[in-house]
Write a structure and sequence with these properties.
Order of helices and strands: EHEHEHEHEHEHHEHHHE
Radius of gyration: 24 Å
Number of helices: 10
Shape: elongated
Number of strands: 8
Helix content: 40-55%
Distance between the termini: 25 Å
């Protein structure tokens, strides 16, 4: 018997066929702990997942089923679950069975043995399509350069946090959230552990290319204003190049070596115009985030909570 207590927070969206198996594997693993709870958070999934969660929570005092009023996204859903995690340790994991529940004791033992407050899971992502692996690697290289920190692309959202970390995690009120980056920003003693990530057994990932792109932009803007500073440096470089090009054009003009046609000049104008619009777009995103924060709307709204009270 493990003399620690664990809460497991699981966002549920479009993975109804995995719920019962996930529950069974979790209870089989967690029964070896002194105390535990499972917090399922339904992000208003369009399938019958909520009905299954209600049935489970109504018959097991260790399970809490939460349904949000609408779809708020995975990372706000994690925040809703964290608010209901009350034990010494909290595990965050996906609900599609890609994160094996059997690894939970290994996470906890590793944290206790090495005095870590946070343990992040790492995996190779070999099951992802080739183009996604390439784009992911490129994205994290760019992100690492911008924030001037090494961002490991192998780190996943499967993570363990101590009680004090969860309390600080819940204090974050930013609407554009990124679970891994929040944990990184919080600091604390952090360890990393490799695990084997299984294939998704139920349906396709809800992360479309458009959604992944939006998430990537949020990640770029999360840490600080370094991304805006990077744009300034790029803009300054382009200004220098443009000045040199103008000098070249003037030289050709006065030396009477003008080549008919202004294709290159038109191309340069188009490039600068596109870059200007890109810069304005990112500034707009920053302003939009400030606007959302100033409105002070809640991160999420809970519609229903199902839990079996102790008799």
């Amino acid at each position: 018997m493990n003399k620690t207590s664990v809460s497991v927070v699981i966002p549920i969206y479009k993975c109804q066929d995995s719920i019962y198996e996930l529950y069974e594997r979790l209870t089989s693993t967690l029964k070896n702990f002194d105390n535990y709870s499972i917090v399922f958070v339904d992000d208003r999934s369009p399938d019958d997942g909520w009905q299954k969660l209600k049935k489970i929570a109504s018959n097991d005092k260790n399970v809490v089923a939460i349904q949000l009023s609408r779809n708020f996204g995975q990372h706000r859903t994690l925040a809703a679950g964290a608010a209901h995690a009350k034990h010494e340790w909290t595990i965050f994991m996906d609900g599609d069975l890609q994160d094996p529940p059997e690894s939970i004791p290994e996470f906890v033992d590793y944290a206790v043995k090495h005095n870590y407050d946070i343990v992040m899971g790492k995996t190779s992502h070999k099951g992802l399509p080739f183009y996604r692996r390439i784009l992911s690697k490129l994205y994290f290289q760019v992100l690492s350069g911008i924030v001037q920190q090494k961002i490991d692309p192998e780190v996943t959202g499967y993570s363990l946090c101590s009680r004090k970390v969860v309390e600080k995690y819940c204090s974050f009120q930013e609407h554009e959230r990124h679970h891994n980056f929040i944990l990184r920003w919080l600091g604390y003693n952090t360890g990393y552990i490799y695990y084997s990530r299984d294939k998704r057994k139920d349906g396709d990932s809800s992360y479309s290319m458009k959604r992944m792109l939006k998430h990537a932009v949020s990640g770029l803007l999360f840490f600080n204003a370094n991304f805006l500073k990077s744009i300034i440096y790029v803009g300054f470089s382009i200004t220098i190049i443009s000045s040199l090009y103008i000098a070249f054009v003037l030289y050709r003009y006065f030396s009477a070596q003008i080549t008919p046609g202004w294709t290159s000049l038109a191309s340069l104008i188009a490039f600068l115009g596109g870059f200007t619009l890109l810069v304005l777009g990112f500034i707009g995103v920053y302003v939009g985030q400030i606007f959302e924060t100033l409105k002070k709307r809640p991160l999420y709204i809970v519609d229903n909570i199902i839990e079996k009270k102790n008799q």
